[in-house]
Structure formats: structure tokens, C-alpha cells
Records
---
Amino acid sequence: MPLTASLIRNVQWPLMERFKQNQTRTYIQQLLEAQYLSPADLQKRQSAKLKQLLDHAVQNVPAYTEFADEWRTTAEEPEQFMQRMPLLDKRHFRESADRYLSAGANPAELIANRTGGSTGEPTRFFLDRPTVERYEAARWLGLSWYGIQIGDPSVMIWGSPIELNQREALRYQLKERWLKNRLIISAYELEEKRIAEHLRTIRRFRPAYLYGYASAFALFAELMLQKGLSLDIPLKAVISTAETLHEHQRKVITEAFGAPVVNEYGARDGGIIAYQCPAGRMHAFSENCFLEVVDPVSGKQVPIGEAGALLVTDLYNRVMPRLRYQLGDMLALSAENCSCGINYPVLKEIDGRVDDMFVSTNGTFVHGHFINHIIRSLDGFRTFQLVQHAPDRLTLRLVKHDEKFQPEDELTVLAGIRSALGGDVSIAVHYVEQIPPTASGKTRYAIRECPLTGSCPQE
Ligand SMILES: [Zn+2]
């Protein structure tokens, strides 16, 4: 075992537990034991936690006190009762966040967090230390399914902290290197000419696993394959996080790195929600969160197996409970069991973000994947971005594959978009060198700027 991994595992963590009362390892152990419980037992435990959370919220959280009498007198199970509670969308939460702070919680003692705002305004919220540790425990449990342990070296491809000055940046890198055994490569520096250098850096560091954005890994992998480069060290896994992992991305990343590509599903404002197991299924950490799936327009629950908008209720955060928080993702729950032996409930599919859905001129919803399918079926384009400004007005940015591009490819793409979104939509086509990542370092393929209701006014 390399020295740093051993120090982190055997010295640093026990010290953190002793002096900072950090309980992450206890939580990992609890999650590990729970994963083998029967689905019925897991559900019972989740239900009991949900009940405690509702007890707390209706008593202490201004946004929920109006439900106190109803909750006290109801004969319903907590899962049913939840359906009476309002959906919490990000905008509403941003505008009235103070009403979600528990009586007695002192913001000065809490952990302030915020979303990156890559898909809109940042959302600010508070957490307590144990909640953050439970999220971390969920990630470590997921990683343990691949033989990865606390302290193992990793390379992260990430939106780098560009706002830091040079000295802060150095301190940040040192902390990453020696306290976390982690090396960071900026997602902004994945240019063609630097790929060989990045590979040398990774090789020297000898990580057990890589961790980062799906789009950044996909770009890295494509450049490796184009140049015939390989990493030449064994990896336990490549962990893709913070973005939808598309099938074509998984394929190219697996091919380039020769390691399993693992989907971590989480969000800064939702915690670590699910992890992909070695059998390929996504397991939701039902010990930490309660998930519901609703129709994105009506807000009504959809039957298990059907895709809709995800609502997350964190079962532990008592300082600022957010019930039925609409994270912005589309997915389906599943009643199936997985062959891997882990009994955490299975998520059927994670379909991307509600923001990735387009709306056609006749009001139907079309997933952003459709354009992906059209473009991937042609060889002429490396990548693309489609922006829907209004149902009938779009901008398409295309990055050409110079050797393979045929002028008729553009017509094929435009015809595909029109068949899905409406024959009379106007599409401004721009050929660009690359699709720039957003401020957080993520690259988005599909962006909708008008509401999903299908009734947005024409400009
Ligand atoms: Zn499984």
C-alpha cells in the first residue's frame, strides 16, 4: 500500500474521528450492513425515518408548520402523507429559504453550501456536519463495491477553483495531494496538445481510480483514441459524476481507459443519491433519502417504472429540511431486484435533466437524447449543442469531424430536429471549433430556455 493511502486510512481518519467527532466511517459501516437487509426491512426503516423527519419539520420548520394538525391526526403512512406536501422547486426555495431553516438552528454553526449555478441561479442552503458525513459515507460505500478504500489515490478531472489566487491555488493543491491523496486536472485544460502530458502526470501519480465529469472524461477519451494514446496503468474504476452519463460516453471512456465506468448519481443540493453497482444497476441509498417521481407538469406521482421528475427528501438534514425537493432530473424508479446482492432499491434509468427536455411546437416533450441519436448515427460531427430559445426557434452548434464530414450531414440533422420538434421551427446553425464548458466545467448538449409547459409566448 502506498504510504499516503496508509497514512490517510490509519492515522488521519482516526484523528479526525477523535478530534472533530467525524463519524463518516461509522456511517459507512451502517450503510454496508443495511445493503444486505431485505427490501421490506429497508422500506420499513426508511418509513420510520421519514416519520421522524415529518414530526420534526411540522413542529420546527416555518414552511411546514401549517401541516402540523393534519399530520398529527392523519391515519396515513408517511409516504402517502408526503403526497399532500407541496413540491419544492429551486426557485421557490431560493426565494424563501429562510422559512426552511429550523427553529433553533444557528446559521453561524452550520455548513453553508450552494449549487454551482451551471443551469441557473445558484441555490444557497445549510447543512449540518453529520449530514455531509452521511453523503460522504454513501460515496465511500459505492466506491467500496469496486474495491476502493478511504485514502486510495485518485485523479479528479474537475472545474478547477479558478477564482483562487496563486498562493491559495498552491495551498489547495497541497491539501488535495497530502490530505486527500488526490490530484486535480482542470476540465478547462483538456486541449488536444496537452493530453499526452496529462497522461504522463496521471501515470506518475498511479491513481486507483479517476473521478470527474462524464463530458470531460468523454472528451479526454476521444482525444486519447484519436491520437492512439493509452494510460497503461490498471484502474479500479472511472467514476463519472455530476452529469448524465450517456451511453456513447460510457463506450468511449471504457475503450480509452480500459476500466469499468461507474455512474455516481448525486447533486450538491441533493447529496449522493445512488451508485452504480458492478452488475450495472443504479442503487439508491434509501437509508439517506426518500425518492419520489412525478409528472413534470402536473406534479402527480407516476407509477413505478415510468419516468418523471425526481423529488428528493433528505432523511437526515434537520437544520434545513427540504421535503420533495425537485432536483431537476428525470428518472424512473424500479421495483426490480438486482443480482449483485445489494438490496438498495434500483433506479431504472436516469434520463438527464428536466432542462434537457425540449418541447415541440405542438406541446409534446422530446428528450434531448433524440438529437444525440441523430448526430451519433452520422460520422460527420465530433460534438454539438442544441439550444431551444422558444418552441419554434433554436440554435444548433456543430463541431465538424473534418475528414468525415459530408455537407448533406447537416441536412440530415436539421430534418431530424424538424421531425421531432415541428416542421416549421427555425434553426440557426453555427459551425464552431468546440463547445465551451459552462462556468462549472460541465458541457451541456441540450439547453432549453423556455418553460416546459409548451405554452411559452412567441418572441
Ligand atoms: Zn446491483
---
Amino acid sequence: MTYASLYQKYRPGTFDEVIGQEHVTRTLRNAVENDQVFHAYLFSGPRGTGKTSTARILARALNCEEGPTSSPCGKCRPCIEIAAGSFPDVFEIDAATHSKVEEAREFLAGVPTGLTAGARRKLYIIDEVHMLSTHAFNALLKTLEEPPAHVVFVLATTEPHKVPPTVAGRCQSLEFRLVSPQKLAEHYIEICEKEGVKAEAAAIEMIARQAGGSVRDGLSLLDQTITAISEEITVEAVLALTARSESETVAAVVDAVAAGDPARCFKLIGDLVDEGRDIRHFVAELNRYFRAMLVTVLAPSAPGLVQLDESAKARVAAQADLLGESAILRGIDLCGGVMTEAASGGDVRFAVETALVRMARPATDPSPAALLQRIESLEKLVSTGGAPPSPSSERVSETPDGKGSADVEAHTPAPNPASADPVVPSAAGSDENAGERVEAGQPPVASAVSGEVPDFDYLLRMWPEFLQALRDKRKQRLHALLAEGRPIALEGNDLIIGFGSKHQYHADSLTNSRDQFDQLLAEVYSAPLRIQSRIVESVDTSEPEAATPEDVPAAPASARVRAADTSNPAADASAEAPDSSGETPISPTDTSEVGVVDLVREAFAAEVVEEYRSE
Ligand SMILES: [Zn+2]
């Protein structure tokens, strides 16, 4: 038996079954009923909203043995063959892969010929029509100018502005819209019922939100979730599967912005593109994240305004504190600009990258909002007396190979130097060692552990490297599993990862994916380690930056300014590495003299014109 995806299985077969496009289906239904079907339609709208499905339904409506009818039976030969893509008079082509003029000609060659037996109308469905070459468009235009009476064209596109007006002008244009999360949720709940799968309402709502208006994207997520769970679709299962990696990227981008690190922003956006994720959706999520930060700053005690789990909330609060109100507002503005750009069909990736550089480098942006942001961060620095020592200052440094090791450290639970765990040395000395090793970018393999199992202390210090390795290899799911636990002991070759009792799911999944972990452990530590999960009474997965925001409010901000000043991150990292956990780049005593001058210079890209000394 072959497995049919939910998307294939629940693909709409009638106009009634198309979700959230009533304005389109009404028009088409009337056209069929009144025998006023156009010769050419242009279906435009975001991906996954039902354009090609609707085109097939139109083909069914016109060719159903019971028809022409607005409610095709779904049981006759034409209905079945059209759904299967084998009906001889319905032609589908994806212009994204067949854009050349020869291919278009070949595709259109049969237009003038008659119908096969049992067919009433011949349909040509061209998906992603905007991808056709100019010559191919010309060939298409010729056909559209004098279409045979029995032929209907459906041109589908996600980018209607790229369709030549001469072509678009010969079509009836129908616009598909993003589907609301509510409608998607209703649809998915229905599917779960039909599939006999139990699901928490909140989990389905989460899937519906993640879908970003695309029926198909949400179904694909639902599919994955059903595969991953044993009994019921829970919020936790959905989170573990996707939300974490998505929001993890958003949070990492905010970290990079706060650290004044455009290079890392580019890298993260590049990864998104490589993974084939929807940048528009990402921007919407980023915007939502900025909103969450704003709410945290302006209404910290208002319950329910920010819907995040506790650890995510703590992180948002720490980042909000780091950025400050005006930077957050600017972020929202810039995201809004990108979304407008996206809606008008601009280059979204370019727009996002430009916006992120502006956020990360307010000094390069002459706008009043950027100026305000610089003033605010300067005020914050001066009011807190420069940059007190803090482990958080590590977060801005980069390893020479461009991996943000410190970034990982900042939000990985395991090697939390601030925790009271006796096996983690909290003294600066050993932290410094870890810092040096990580900062120097040496692969941990190099340090005398070949083949032998290193001690637990070492494993713990190198844990961020291991988590980074997971991310580098795009093992988001594995990373998400580990994010809820922490290494608690080494027993022989078994590295024990502790999970709190509410993370039973993570512990079980970890056990099920052991082979993959063990292989990576061997690669990172060059030792024959095995991973084991264990449920323990309490696991401290608090994040370092979240644990101490009150203690060291200014450290991250000063780190940000310093990072913004850095033209060569690699050189800077090696130069600053020993400072990162020990001495501070700008000591509090300096603030009154050199410190402030530096700060002003850095915040405003200012030059010292003349110097006056008091006394
Ligand atoms: Zn039929």
C-alpha cells in the first residue's frame, strides 16, 4: 500500500470543498451553470491556496458525465481521470520547469485539434505561468488571441505582476487569498476526525497559524505531526516538531540584530532560503516577535497578551531589555515595510536583508528612529556605568569560522555557569578555559580525547559545540529535543540527559533517535559515547541571559555597541576572546573618560573634534 499524503487525500474535488476561496468558486460555479465559461482564466495568489486544485475542479465541472455541472459527481470516468491527471483532454504543465518556447509550442500544439471521445472541453492548465520565457509568452498570446471554442486556459501564478499585460488582459482574473487560521483549523479538525486521530484544539490552532494561510503547508505539517505522535496531537508534539525551529530562527535573528551582527543575519536568512522556507512567513513571525517584545516592555504584567511558553517568554524579556523600546519599535516599522514590499511583489529576501542591516547597524541609518535608538542605548550605557562583567558579553563574539558559538551558549540550557549544579564549575577560571577553547574555534576533537571517553566536566563545557553541530547539520528536530534537557551525568560511556517529568515526550523521542545522536557524539567528541535519557525531578533549563537580567542589565547593551564597531568580526573575536568571561572591554572606571567618548563615537559614528578636560 502506498502512502497518500493528507494533501493528496483531501485535495478538494468540488467547488464546495475548496477552503476559503468562496469569491472565486462562486464566480466559476455561476459561469458553469450559465454556460458563460471564459476561454482563459488567470488564477493568482499565494502558494498552497488551491489554484491548481480549482483548475482541476473546473475541468471536472465541464467534463463530468452528469454535466456540465457546478457539482461534478466525482465518480464518472472523466471525474476520476481528471483527478488522477490522466484525462486525455486536460493538460497540465509547470512553467517553472518548462519555460522554453519549444516546450510551450509543443504543449500548445494540440490546441487546435478536436476533442477525444467523452470530452466536452479541453483544458490547458499552466502553473507558475510567470516563469515562461518572452518567446513562450508570445506563442501563448497567439493562441489566446484566437482560441478554439472548445478550449479553456487556466494560467496560475504566485506573481501576477510578472505576467505580461497583453496576456493577462485576455484572461478573466481571479485572485486567491491566504486562508484564515480559523478556517484552516476547522478544516484540519475535520480531517483529524476523518482520520480517527485525537488532537488538542490548541495544537491544531498552532498548526493552522504555522501554515501561514496555505492549506497545503498546514497539511504537510499535520502529516508530519501525525507520523511523529503515538496517540494524540498535542501542543508539545507540534512544538517539538516545528515551532521551535521556526521561532528559534526568529529568536536567533533578533540575537544577531541585538549583537549588531549583520553577517549572522545574512547567514540565518540564507539558511532559511536553503531550507525552502517561506521568507514572508518568517517576516510575519519576526514582526510578531517584536510585538511580543514590545508588550513585554510596555505591559510586563499584563497576562495573556503574549502567547509563549515560559522559557520563550524569559528569552523575549531578556532580548527586549537588550534592545530597548525604540529599537523594538523600529524593528516593527522595518518589518512592516518588508511586508508591504512583499505584498507588492518586491524581492522579499533583499528587503529583509536590508531591513536587518538597518536594525543591526543603527549607526548606518540616518533616520530619526535610528537616531533615537542610538540615543537610547547611549543613555542606558551611561546610566549603568559602562559595561560590568558578565557572561552574557560572550554572546556577541564569533568564532573565526563564523559560527556563533557564544550565541548558542546564550540560550542552551546545559552549560549554565550560573546554575548551582555542583558539577559545573562556576569559577571564572574554568569558564575562561572553555571560552578560550570555543572562541579559538578548535574542534574539540583536537584536545587529547581521541577514542577515549572524556570526563563529564569536559563534555559539559563542549556541549554548546555539540548543539551547534546539530544546527549546522540542520538537525532541528534533534536540537529541539535536547533543548528541553541537559546532561546530568556520565555513566561509563553513557551520557545521561535529564528531562523534567513534563518532557516525557522529548525523553522518549531522544531514546528513539539515539542512533543519530550517537553518531554525532562520536564526530564531535571523537569518543564512543551513547546518549541516554532520564526523567528527573527538576531540570534547570533556564537560560543564562534570562536568569540574570536584573543583575547585569547593561552588559549586553555595551557588548552590542562594541560589536557594532567591529569591522572585522573574526579578528575582533580572537582579540576579545580572553575578555569575554573575565575582564570587561570597558571597565566601569573608564566610563567617565575614555568610555563615554568611545560610546559616543560608536553610537553616532562621531569623530572627536576637540577635547576639553575638566580640572
Ligand atoms: Zn463526474
